[in-house]
Amino acid sequence: MNDSQRTGKKPLPLPVSIGMIVIAVILAVATAIGNVYANKYSDLISVYFNQPTSKVVSAENETTEHFTSDYASDEEREAALGEIGTDITREGATLLKNENDALPLATGARISVLGQNSVDTVYGGGGAGSIDASQAGTLLQSFEDAGFDVNQTLVDFYENGAGKDYRKTATNSYGEGEFAVNEVPVDVYTDEVLDSFSSYDDAAVVVIGRSGSESQDLPSEPLASGYTYLQLDDDERAMLEMAAEHFDTVVVLLNTQNPMELEALESDDVDAVLWIGALGQTGATAVGEVLNGTVNPSGHLPDTYATDLASAPSMANSGSYTITNSTEAFSTNYMAYAESIYVGYRYYETRYEDVVLGNEDAANYDYTTQVAYPFGYGLSYTDFEWSDYEMNETSDGFDVSVTVANTGDVAGKDVVQVYMQSPYTDYDKDNGIEKASAELVGYAKTGEIEPGESETVTVHVDKESMKVYDAEGEGTYIVDAGDYYFAAGSDVHEALNNILAAKGYGVDDGMDAEGDASFAAKTTVHTQDNRTYATSAASGNEITNQFEDVDLTTYDDSFTYLSRSDWTGTWPDTYADGTWTAPQEFVDALAVDTTTTEPESTPVTDTQNSSYGELNVSMLMDTDYDDEAWDALIEQMSVDELDELVRVGGYATKSVDSTQLPATVDKDGPAGISSTLVGGENGMGYPPEVVIAATWNADLAERFGAAIGEDSIALGVAVWYGPACNIHRSPYGGRAFEYFSEDSFLSGDLCAQVVAGAASKGVVSTVKHFALNDQETNRMGLAVFANEQTVRQLYLKPFEMSVREGGASAMMASMNRIGSRWTGGHKGLLTNTLRDEWGFKGFVVTDQASYSVFAYEDLREGLEAGTDLWLNTDNELWKLSDAEMTDGVVANMQRAAKNISYALSRSNAMNGLSANSTIVKVTPLWRWGVYALDGVVTIGVVALCAAATISILRRRKQATLTVQSDDADSADKQ
Question: Can you name one GO molecular function term for this protein (predicted)?
């Protein structure tokens, strides 16, 4: 009898036993690797699963809710926030054309909705600014809710018939994929669909859609269709012709986010054009209301719509250009802002005025063929008449008032826009200062004015608007001597014509329409002022040049920026033909600089200050930033705590035991708190910033910010990666939806309102992307060049306004360089300008820094310059050695920790905390799941190994017994 017979158990086949051991080893290794990554990315995983890592223990009956919701329930909050989203589209929808009062359509009209975008609607952009479109209302539903009878045969064709095979495409947030319009060709429409038009022929509503995303700009070169992405292609044009053949009324909806070339819509066959932007979750409702007249459109364009988008001077330098002799990580691309200040209307309107003044040959420039719709343009269903323009000087500026009367038949809102013209002097020309012929300096939206009623609005213009940056002469801000004009207009072109009329010009001088001098006023500065704005109004510090290293003329003295003194002679070419062998001085400067200023004495850490005793952050919630108690608090932190807080701040910040700083959850995006990138819960998804800009409604922008705050409280997201206020430098910017406008003042004013509204609910808004991140192509490490006047007056102004007027307590550094230096490592930007000039108190966080390939976002360089927090989810990344953790690094970390702690002490992260509270770390549920899985796997591994081992031993024993038995049998035979 063999062993298996005696035991009743048969050994497993040897390959099975070996396989069990291999499986056990794989499970053990996989579990070990999983635990490593779980530890590395623990905060990110907690955010993804929406699980807290700490809790607050407070004294009984102690009131510690510092920021509270205005709503009694989640249902009430969600309904109210959805209404705000609808209001943004109600006020942002912009009527560009309305021949013969084609709009509004009659309630009950039988309509055919054309275009694949009618069922594949643009609700937002891609990437960080995306929203959860699965929760969004549809255009077709909004039309039905508005009382229209919608052609369902056509709807079914797009959703289920041959039309379903045609959908626009765009790149994803990683730049993967391709852009294509893919409109349904007219020969695909079936006879059944064409026949259905006759039963739904009150109007054709044609929906044109375009979108974008972070990481890639829209293609400005022709696609396979032969057209650029922002032109109407042949299939769209054919669809419009088909609509004109079958319908007497054709209405076009522009469900788009960038300016487009719209010459095809100027045809008499198109009766009305309404820009609706992207819709967010609830904006679609407003579109039906606008079409049926329940809502009178009051939006105005935040961008110039040129007939040829390539006519923008920035287009000469947009795209991907290479530095041939650089080997530094992410440092082989550059971009020259050769157009100087002449972005958007600042170019188109200024060159127009120069033609009128005789300073430019009319043969070189024809405004009427260059611009389809000027900046600020927008129509209404009613008529407004302005009167009683008046400008009165005050101690700090000018009050401009206008009476707006509704002379039409329906109630509506209007926008009064105020533009300033500065003198363009010989001093300016000698010192490289550029002046636009008109700059927006103020605006106001009326309330709803009933027919026959009027409203007088007053717009305050700060005298500081008159300053200009003089980099070459005084090296600071000056106010030129000369005449300054302030004019009101319904758009920039009308305001400029009013200024020209006040200067004595008319159509005989080349103007395209007579202006009205009664809507312009003049004030004269008799002596150039070099002192008033040479010191900061916010901090009292001296203002000096900070961006000479960003000016391309520093490295190439032959380089010329566009100047109105010679439009043709200075017109931008693609710098270095797109491939630049940079001076060695510049190439050397691209290297990361880890030099750290060492303090005079060793920083005090992990120690209580005897003058204050044990402090916690809650005790300092109302303590000024400059109070020494903050320094005493930060000295309580250990070096390890400082390091962890500053270095690992991606989508969350760490709690700090020694100071009782609460942990936070930090999330994108600018159109509403989003789970797109890191999971967790979504907040309400709103129409994006470009639609908010089109509202020209500062109060609504503040309401939007407060709405973000409501979701912040409900979802436990204290730090919001938004809003975003870069400039629409190029019409093809991939992230234009996420930014407000081509204009710095409109962008800055609305951004400031959003930040203030969010702060009222305790949100820390990280205004982004700071700064000159105005294209997506090569945004990681791109070296951007611009002169100091342009940097300050166009690209930094929105950020400055968000700080000085909105009270912003956080900024997000961009991923590009300015000059040779990463923005997060540029001390002139982050310390000398942001803090010392603007009076900023708070923290600067990097953009994405969770990967070692972003080596140029160096921890030591960033800390030295003024960056405080790394958007890094890897607990090991950026870790310095003991030798690298010098006194200077520790001192910089202490400054950073103070900035973070100060900003969070003013946030809703403090809800539940008081001076007597205690923060207790808790193990999130996912971590218990990992522990349980580890246990199960361990038991499984042990069981597999044990079973395999026992089986192998049995097999070995069985083999031994068999040999012995064979030997015995052989002996017996002998």
Answer: hydrolase activity, hydrolyzing O-glycosyl compounds
